[in-house]
Amino acid sequence: MPITISLCMIVKNEQETIARCLNSIRDIVDEIIVVDTGSTDDTVEILKRYTDKIYHFEWIHDFAAARNFAFDRATMDYILWLDADDVIYEKDRKKLAELKQSLNFSVDSVSMEYHLSFDQDGNVTSKSRRNRLVKRANKFRWHGAVHEYLLVGGNILNSDIAVTHVSVEHESDRNIRIYEARLARGETFEPRDLYYYANELLDHRRFEDAAAVYDQFLNTHQGWIEDVIAACGKLADCYHNLNQPDKEQEYTLRSFLYDTPRADFCCRMGYYFLQKSEWKKAAFWYELATNLPKPDANWGFVNNAYWTWLPHLQLCVCYDRMGDYRKAFEHNEIARRYRPTQEFVLLNKAYLESRLSED
């Protein structure tokens, strides 16, 4: 017997995206519950075309509270959550419809990929994984006023279904204002709050402030491992923008203390030596990046470029500078498998073919 699904959403001023989102899921879910936190545009009128379960929630600067309010109104076996600027494309709609028919009720949560950005050929360049479909009877709750997360446990199925984020403009200062209001009230931030507050500071190019908060986060020794590793990369970004290359390298290397090397940090090391024209050292780090296994069902953010074409493209540069045109050509060809129409890859191909023909 198929499961039943409640779709739960929170929205505010989403008239540009809400219909696109709901059109992609309306025929799969059994009820649509939308909590509006104060729309002043046509969002609510659009919602009425899809559901009569529209609730109004007074905004208290707490995203988790709004999401829990929505979850509390669900009545079906499982709850699916989406944001208004998310969409489920046809191949994933089919997978979700099939999952609905076959899902064993022993499953407490189904995680799905979250596709965040794409290259010019439509390949996913950045993604993460999130618990998307959860058993209502378990009463899983959202936590965190900003950058909220759903705390789940039990039997988790990691599916290959993807939700795609189709970006739209949002109020850029909203989140940082919430954090700074909480600080003004004297609140003590948990490690996760420190990490996301630092992200907001980085996004606002307040590099020194961001670096201080990232350090504070790392010094708690309590952060989620993926956030800890990501914080090292973001600290490297801060010091790159502050023109402090030694500090940039310090935090790149610090990432290796927390886990086996990741391809993105190896590429950072490679780029450091590439800028100094130390081609052999740069090639070492880029070669290492190409030999690392790509994370499987990784819950942190993954930039596919570092695990696919980018280190090979940089190796093409390194070997060209070292005069090894055959190796340079081989690595450019690997990059071309991933980026077959990229202009600079095609230019490299023509240049290296002419070099090899001279030998």
TrEMBL record:
TM helices/strands, residue ranges: none
Residues covered by the Glycosyltransferase 2-like domain: 6-121
SUPFAM superfamilies: Nucleotide-diphospho-sugar transferases (SSF53448), TPR-like (SSF48452)
Domain of life: Bacteria
Pfam family, one: Glycos_transf_2
Protein name from the UniProt record: Glycosyltransferase family 2 protein
